[in-house]
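Lecture 7 notes. Example A: sequence first, then its structure tokens.
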Amino acid sequence: MAHHHEHRHDHGHGHGDVDWAELAPLLESQAELFTPLYERALNWLAKEVTEPGLIVDAGSGPGVISCLFAETFPGARVVAVDSSEPLLERAGDRAGRQGAADRFATLAGELPGVLGELDYPADLLWASRSIHHLGDQAAALAACAERLAPGGTLAVLEGGLPPRFLPRDIGFGRPGLQARVDVAEEERFGRMRAELPGSVAVVEDWPALLTSAGLHHTRSRTFLLDLPAPVTDRARAYVVTALTRTREVVGEDLDADDRATLDRLLDPDDRASVHHRPDVFVLAAHTVHTAVRPV
């Protein structure tokens, strides 16, 4: 499972004292970097979900994906749902710039309860790495399923593979740094899940969970973001931000050698840092699981 840098930056989940308004430009730029992946996922959905009337983006953040839905489905009304009003303001502004304001709305509140405030059932409900921030994931999926119109589709982006930015051997430190970071992040993610209110441990078999929520016709597909070296300035900035976040969040869970390696990778004055190295790349894989409410 890849609950790594992207889920922390793509969405506002309302945890802690995060200043989402301050983070909004960063959230947007990183979601924009992943736009090719999201576009492929939405085009895949469009082959099965034809002419939806209402699309709901549950955990929308600043609305980059919400606006991609508006672009992919020009006849649909789109509602971006998030706990952060500053991020929803950004989403509305983006929809306006793209000429979709007349069919774009926002809804502020905590998932999944806020979905009860929707005026109409959804023909497509999208939840991108928002379900795993809810204590009872099975109950959350059931609540999402209840907000679907008959024949409506629930699409959940969860899992995939951890992102990779560097070769296994970068010329200093022990080879395999990112694999060890994966372990530390998995353990941290497990602690986060255990500490959520009402946390329930489940086997993260998403098709089975969707079936248990009363849905059928489950499908899963993984989409790749492949930005090979040499990367653009925007991709390099994403790698710097992601590894900075790694150092801040799981640095104490790594040994001294790995912390020193990360510090060198993040030192802008070091020619071997990710600020300068020619071998930096971005490779990520996100998995989308879908299921349909029976007619």
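Example B, a different protein, same format:
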Amino acid sequence: MREPRRAGVLGSPIAHSLSPVLHRAAYAELGLTGWRYDAFEVDEAALPGFLAGLRDGTGEPGSWAGLSLTMPLKRAVIPLLDEVSATASSVEAVNTVVFTADGRLTGDNTDIPGIAAALREHGVTSVESAVVLGAGATASSALAALARICAGEVTVYVRSAARAAEMREWGERLGVRVRTEDWGDAAKAFEAPLVIATTPAGATDGLAESVPERPGALFDVLYHPWPTALAAAWTARGGEVVGGLDLLVHQAVLQVERMTGRTPGPLAAMRAAGEAALGV
């Protein structure tokens, strides 16, 4: 590999991103002293020009290894790439772009295996059924991960008929049996052996009092503020809790491996850096 190499995270807004903290910690642990990882404020309108500049050398200077993508770019980037992995295609979302030696841009999705890896780390390797709270982009990635570990039905709690239809369609595409329920009945969700909350901050706070005496496992994809009211109630009842930082670190480890070619990625060092940045 040529030195120095560059990578970065694109999105809008981007100032809050922990990706630079995690990737820089990985480079330090791997001894990649010539590598840089920066954050760039890029929206959908600016994305084509930004990528074109990296391809032809008129944009940000450097020898590029890869990019991380956050909202709202995960779908907007797809037509701008030379190749997209089957994993990313399955949910029409790319969060990782790798620059190949011949200048091609290849897209992948590390959120899906990241969800599975975070669950596996907490001892959740298979379940008979599961619940997903919410119906956004993360919910479709959660369904894709559940396709690997859930033997039975996945119940998705949503706020609108349109969202319900979307999630049933994703289930058909991903080979997951999906049943949808109204968000107003979400308190019933917590009898499932695995609950994945994919909603924005505060959306599940009102459900915290509904956590049963002996809950199963909760995967709450938020990492700030942490713990969420739901995660705190779940922990108080003795249930297993997987947090958003677990997902963030596991998907970032996979990005580091793909961009640097070094395996295994330094999970412990990246987690420690993330915890220090969040003050947890």
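Note on Example B: The mean pLDDT is 95. The first helix runs from residue 19 to 30.
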